[in-house]
């Protein structure tokens, strides 16, 4: 995956956490794809809908330093090729408050934001 803007590197997070003892900062990412509603309110863009709910639930299954993606995103055109060579662990998990009780998810351990 490409990140167009770099705010903080994984190394900076690890360095900060090692200097402060326990993990003070953790990064975990969840992603899903599908339709959503975008609304601009007070000059801020916000998203609503079931797709957003699923993405939030998928993120809650990630551990610190992991990216979890739904099977829908993983099977979207081009995504599996982007992830080629990375450690992917597939698992089924229940997603609280989501119509379908279980979803197939993929997890990549170790986030590498600095990767081009």
Account of the 3D structure:
The chain is α+β, with helices and mostly antiparallel strands and 116 residues long. It has one domain (10-109): Nucleotide cyclase, GGDEF domain (Alpha-Beta Plaits), CATH 3.30.70. The protein contains four helices and six strands, in the order H-E-E-E-H-E-H-H-E-E. It has helices spanning 10-19, 50-61, 71-74, 79-82, and strands at residues 29-31, 37-41, 44-48, 66-70, 88-94, 102-109. The strands form two sheets. The protein has a four-stranded mixed beta sheet. A two-stranded antiparallel ribbon has the order 2-3.
Task: Summarize the topology.
Blueprint: H1 10-19, E1 29-31, E2 37-41, E3 44-48, H2 50-61, E4 66-70, H3 71-74, H4 79-82, E5 88-94, E6 102-109
Parallel strand pairs: 1-4
Antiparallel strand pairs: 2-3, 4-6, 5-6
Could you give a quick summary of the protein structure above?
The protein has 116 residues and is of the alpha+beta class.
């Amino acid at each position: 995956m490409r990140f167009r803007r770099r705010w903080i590197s994984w190394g900076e997070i690890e360095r900060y956490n090692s200097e402060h003892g326990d993990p003070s900062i953790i990064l975990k990412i969840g992603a899903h794809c599908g339709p959503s509603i975008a609304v601009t309110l007070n000059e801020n863009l916000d998203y609503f809908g079931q797709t957003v709910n699923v993405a939030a639930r998928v993120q809650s299954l990630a551990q610190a330093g992991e990216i979890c993606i739904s099977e829908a995103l993983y099977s979207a055109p081009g995504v599996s090729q982007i992830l080629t060579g990375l450690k992917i662990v597939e698992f089924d998990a229940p997603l609280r408050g989501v119509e379908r009780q279980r979803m197939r998810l993929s997890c990549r351990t170790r986030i590498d934001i600095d990767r081009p």
